[in-house]
Amino acid sequence: MSAPSFSPNPLVVQQLAPKGVLRAGINMSNFLLVNGKTESGDPVGVAPSMAAEVARLLGVTLQLVPFANPGLLADAAGTDTWDIGLFGADPLRSKTTAFTPAYCEIEASYLVPPDSRLKCVTDVDQPGVTIAVFARSAYGLWLERNNQHATLLPCDAGGAALDRYLTDKVDALAGLRPGLIGDLAKAPGHVILPGGFMAVQQAIGCGKGQPEAEAFLRNFVEDAKASGLVANLIAQHNVQGLSVAPAA
Fold this sequence. Notes:
This protein folds into two domains: 10-104 and 200-244, Periplasmic binding protein-like II (D-Maltodextrin-Binding Protein, domain 2), CATH 3.40.190.10; 106-198, Periplasmic binding protein-like II (D-Maltodextrin-Binding Protein, domain 2, 3-Layer(aba) Sandwich). The chain is 31% helix and 26% strand. It has eight helices and 13 strands. Strands 1, 4, 5, 6, 7, 8, 9, 10, 11, 12 and 13 form an eleven-stranded mixed beta sheet that branches. A two-stranded antiparallel ribbon has the order 2-3. The longest helix has 17 residues, at 211-227. The protein is elongated.
């Protein structure tokens, strides 16, 4: 489980950390990748640890830049707010961000009421079905592109989506499977449908037009998976429901 040890081209350091500081954008709403904070308030988890390893290889200082949700992190691309961003890769986000292959993935599924006629994920996309979803999440963006018949009810936070699902008698709540398992505490008797409608691909992004930096980050992610670093970080942070992504 050794960490990657290759050295970057000096041009990579110039592209990613020209002032000797690597600013890493972190999505604070993903409890699988950020599951704690230090005494000073810095995020702790798999994503911050991955960012720390990138900074170590570059030989620079790490500065974590927290964002309340992935939409805000994505919006900050190209604004000189972060140098790398650790969040879900998505075709819409790829218009402004160059993503590595995924280093880990998280299955997304649905929570449904106890008496629901929906028995599997393929039953959900049909006329008359309503789905509460965290707006601009990676799985929410996927549903916007791929859902054809059901009605999406976007909410500004995962908790807000759960509340709407429960109070407005919505047919299904879309979410990451580990989060849905936690939601069962507020929705006893409700059921998580077997399987998943997609898997969120958690990756590392950087600004476009930096081919050397893109190649470095791509190689880092593949080495981190192959060496066991990602699996080790998942175990170290005691995260359930997060899987190492397959080799690209």
